[in-house]
Amino acid sequence: MSSVRIASTPVQALRIAEEFRPDVLLTDVRLGDPDGIEGPDLARQVEQVVPDVTVVFMTGFSDRMHDLLAQGEHTLAKPFTKEALGRVLFPVDAAAVLDDGGAR
């Protein structure tokens, strides 16, 4: 069973991560935090607490998306569908599909 937690601030997100230990962190790149914390900063802080967390960034800015993709980060352009999020979280292994003749 999946469970979701939502945070309004980076500080709140970090506190939730410490208590909840999520499998996935979905964060905007630009958070507009008054203390200057942005999505990549939050992700690094959460990764300190939950080293195996999967981080997915979302952004409406193509330059930021390009930079994150170049760094190998999971990144989605806003707006995105739940199917697009699913493809990032559960990528299809093309070799597995070819080996058994169909998708898993």
What is the mean predicted local confidence, pLDDT? Answer: 88
> The CATH topology is what?
Rossmann fold
Largest pleated sheet = 3 strands, parallel
Shape field: globular
Sheet with most strands: strand arrangement: 1-2-3
The count of β-strands is: 3
| Low-confidence runs of at least 5 consecutive residues | none
Residue fraction in strands: 5-15%
Text of the CATH class: Alpha Beta
**End-to-end C-alpha gap:** 20 Å
Description of the structure:
It is a single chain. This protein is α/β, with parallel strands linked by helices and 104 residues long. It has one domain (10-100): Rossmann fold. The protein is 44% helix and 14% strand. It is built from 5 helices and 3 strands, in the order αβαβαβαα. The chain has a 3-stranded parallel beta sheet with strand order 1-2-3, with helices on both faces. Strand 1, helix 2 and strand 2 (54-59) form a beta-alpha-beta unit. The two termini are 20 Å apart. The model has no long low-confidence stretch (mean pLDDT 88).
Q: Which features characterize this protein?
A:
single chain, globular, Rossmann fold
List the helices and strands and how they pair.
Elements: H1 10-20, E1 24-28, H2 39-49, E2 54-59, H3 62-70, E3 74-77, H4 82-89, H5 94-100
Parallel strand pairs: 1-2, 2-3
Helix pairs in contact: 1-2
